[in-house]
Amino acid sequence: MQPSRSDPPTDFHDADREAMERKIREALETLSQVRVTVMNHEQADESVLEQRVDRLVRGYSDMFALKDRLNVNIPEDVLGYVKEGRNPDEFTSQFVERVASENQFTNGKIAALTNFKQEFEAKLQEFFPEELKERQKDETTQ
User: Fold this and answer.
1) Full 3-state SS string of 13-78
2) What pLDDT digit, counting tens, does each position of 76-112 carry?
3) Looking at residues 48-63, what average pLDDT do you find?
4) What percent of the chain has pLDDT over 70?
5) pLDDT of residue 13
6) Could you give the CA distance from residue 116 to residue 88 in angstroms, rounded to a whole number?
7) What is the largest CA-CA distance in the chain?
C-alpha cells in the first residue's frame, strides 16, 4: 500500500525526500510566478520580481543543503530522458509496457512447456506404463 501525501514519513529519509519534493514543487511554482511577472513586466513589478528571484535562490540553496541527506538512485536512462528534454514519466510508461510484454511472452513459454509436459507424460503413460509406474514408485521412496 502506497502512503498518501498526508501520511507522516516513516523515517528521516522519507522526511528528507518529502522536504526535497516540497522544495521542488515550491521552486516550480516560483519559476511560474517569475515567468508571469517577466511577461507582464512593468516598472512597479521589479520589487515583486526581485522577491520571487530571491525566494527561488533560497529554495535552490535549501535543495542543495538537502541533497547530501538523500540516497536516491536514478537510472541513467531516466537521466538521459531528462537531458533530452523528455518527460521521465514517458520512460516509466515505456518500461512498464516493455515489462508487461516480456511477462506475457514468458507466460506463453510457461504455458507451452506445461502443455508439452502434459502431452509428454500422457505419451509416456501410453507407451511405457510399467516404466512410468516404476519411476513414480522410486520417487515416492526417496
Assistant:
1) HHHHHHHHHHHHHHHHHHHHHHHHHHHCCCHHHHHHHHHHHHHHHHHHHHHHHHHCCCCCCCCHHH
2) 988 898 899 999 899 999 999 999 999 999 999 999 9
3) 91
4) 88
5) 66
6) 42
7) 99
Q: Which three cell numbers stand for residue 133?
A: 509406474
Q: Are residues 105 and 99 in contact, defined by beta-carbon separation less than 8 angstroms?
A: no
Q: What is the mean pLDDT of residues 55-76?
A: 88
Grade residue 9 by pLDDT with cuts at 50, 70 and 90: very low
pLDDT of residue 114: 96
Q: Contact at 8 Å (CB) between 26 and 59? A: yes
Task: Give the other-Cβ count within 10 Å of 60's Cβ.
Answer: 13
C-alpha separations of 140 from 18, 121, 128, 137 in Å: 57, 17, 19, 5
How far is the C-alpha of 53 from the C-alpha of 41, rounded, in Å?
Answer: 14
How many Cβ atoms sit within 10 Å of the Cβ of residue 52?
A: 21
Interior CA angle at 125 toward 123 and 130, to 5°? 140
